[in-house]
Write a structure and sequence with these properties.
- This protein is mainly alpha-helical.
- It has one domain.
- Helix content is 79%, strand content 0%.
- α4 runs antiparallel to α5.
- The two termini are 14 Å apart.
Length: 157
């Protein structure tokens, strides 16, 4: 006795798929442009202005104001302290922010490409599912035909 295979497969699309299609990838601009408190606006404004090479140049010029005084004293400890506490901190801070902004922009581009790749893979998976549904229907048709052929065959003992 042959067991009849279950006919068809009921594909149910995950509800997240349609919701995801309606959304765009989240980028830094979307997060930054949202509503902000006064402190957030102030912090963001300062960060944007300090995180430029022009700020690095201005801070470099500012560090030069105290350099002659430190050099005239000739104290190696004060010279090292000036380099560490004044020059490095003031000049490197905006340069580091500039570098982080460049890295963040690069990461954002990669994230968008990953998002687009995932969307493409999802669309391909949906096409594959439709293809499999078509194959299921054809296989069901073939099984039905085989069952009819077997039923019409004379039974032998």
């Amino acid at each position: 006795m042959t067991t009849k295979p279950k006919k068809g497969f009921d594909y149910v699309q995950d509800p997240h798929i349609e919701a995801r299609k309606a959304k765009k990838p989240v980028v830094a601009k979307d997060v930054v442009d949202g509503p902000k408190s006064l402190n957030e606006k102030l912090g963001l404004g300062i960060t944007k202005r300090v995180g430029t090479m022009w700020a690095a140049y201005a801070f470099f010029a500012l560090t030069l104001v105290s350099l002659p005084s430190v050099l005239m004293k000739g104290d190696p400890v004060q010279i090292v302290a000036w380099i560490a506490q004044t020059f490095l901190q003031l000049v490197l801070l905006p340069i580091i922010i500039v570098g982080q902004n460049i890295q963040a922009a690069s990461a954002e581009k990669r994230a968008i490409l990953t998002y687009e790749d995932a969307a493409a893979v999802l669309e391909e998976a949906i096409k594959i599912q439709k293809h499999l549904d078509h194959q299921d229907k054809y296989l069901e048709h073939l099984v039905d035909r085989l069952e009819k052929l077997e039923a019409s065959k004379p039974k032998t003992k």
